[in-house]
Specification:
With about 325 residues, this protein is α+β, with helices and mostly antiparallel strands. About 30% of the residues lie in helices and about 25% in strands. It is built from seven helices and nine strands, in the order αααββββααααβββββ. The longest helix has 20 residues. This is CU044_5270 family protein.
Length: about 325
């Protein structure tokens, strides 16, 4: 994507209001744009920028009620236009619910001020699939808590300055502590809340479509990348992931520190091959992420990452 307005180009203000299936499909297109950015990090806007733009796009869609109908792929709708529910994987649910219990026992309540920054340090190791050569990146980020100040972030060693968010801009997960605290701490309510444009929680998860579950898995994964969450939110996110049809446990997956654990992969609509969340096989402690990607030049690689340090600080470039 070379032009950020491609996300909005197909929208028509004179089109009739969207049906609910069409609205879900439009959100699916936005998320697919983000995942394409992740798979091709050498082109287009940064992944974080794409998330920010997509969030604004979903809000705009909710206001205008217009978008182009996107063709479904990989799903067989029933006569009512919904996707039949899939079976949930017991092994994956055991790992994710264990991770929820571990996170709940380890967390310490925090509440950053809006004028502060969240500092985090992440290690990324990329292995070229053809040559076996390994590149190591140390990415250090300072995120404005409420988005009112510039943020400094790194992606694969590239330094990126992000300007303060405008009045109608947002990012997922929300930076404002007040918005994070408003997210439901019940997994059955968190899923519909994060996939709806207005935070609705009254939809039953039994009625969600394949598009909805794709969005839920993707957005929950992004939420879990946030190093600081309100008390109970991380555990809730893990429990919500356990509800997602199509999650699967993959044994013997190594993280960027060389530790062997269990990978949790999503195999449903929109899934990415070789993309896992990695957990310790016994304690279920979260270890990091694994993904496979490619560059614009055609080079393919395996990427492993984990956060090694985080803190709440008062200034940009301040370290704990």
């Amino acid at each position: 994507m070379t032009d950020e307005l491609e996300l909005l180009r197909d929208w028509d203000a004179d089109a009739p209001p969207l049906t609910e299936p069409a609205r879900a499909q439009a959100r699916h297109r936005l998320l697919n744009t983000i995942t394409r950015t992740e798979r091709h990090p050498d082109t287009g806007p940064s992944r974080r920028r794409a998330l920010r733009l997509a969030t604004a796009g979903v809000v705009a869609m909710a206001i205008t009620g217009t978008a182009v109908l996107i063709t479904t792929e990989g799903e067989v709708p029933d006569r009512a236009g919904t996707v039949a529910p899939r079976m949930r994987n017991a092994a994956a649910a055991k790992v994710l619910n264990g991770a929820a219990a571990y996170a709940g026992n380890q967390e310490t309540p925090v509440a950053p001020r809006g004028d502060q920054f969240i500092y985090s340090k992440r290690i990324i190791k990329e292995t070229d699939r053809k040559t076996g050569k390994v590149k190591t990146f140390v990415d250090v980020n300072w995120d404005s808590v409420d988005g009112s100040k510039r943020s400094l972030t790194m992606e694969r060693g590239n330094v990126i300055w992000e300007e303060a968010m405008g009045k109608n801009e947002g990012v997922w997960p929300p930076r404002e502590w007040s918005k994070l605290k408003k997210l439901p701490t019940e997994p059955e309510k968190l899923v519909p809340a994060i996939i709806s444009a207005n935070g609705t929680t009254d939809q039953s998860i039994d009625d969600l479509s394949g598009f909805d579950w794709f969005q839920a898995y993707f957005l929950l994964g992004e939420l879990l990348k946030h190093p600081v969450l309100p008390q109970g939110m991380r555990s809730t996110a893990y429990e919500a992931l356990a509800l997602v049809p199509g999650v699967k446990a993959i044994p013997g997956v190594k993280d960027s520190a060389g530790r062997t654990g269990v990978g949790i992969a999503y195999t449903g609509e929109g899934s990415q091959k070789g993309s896992y969340l990695i957990f310790d096989a016994e304690s279920y402690e979260f270890l990091g992420f694994r993904s496979e990607g490619s560059t614009a030049s055609g080079r393919t690689y395996i990427q492993l990452s984990h956060t090694v340090e985080w803190a709440i600080v008062d200034r940009l470039k301040q370290r704990p």
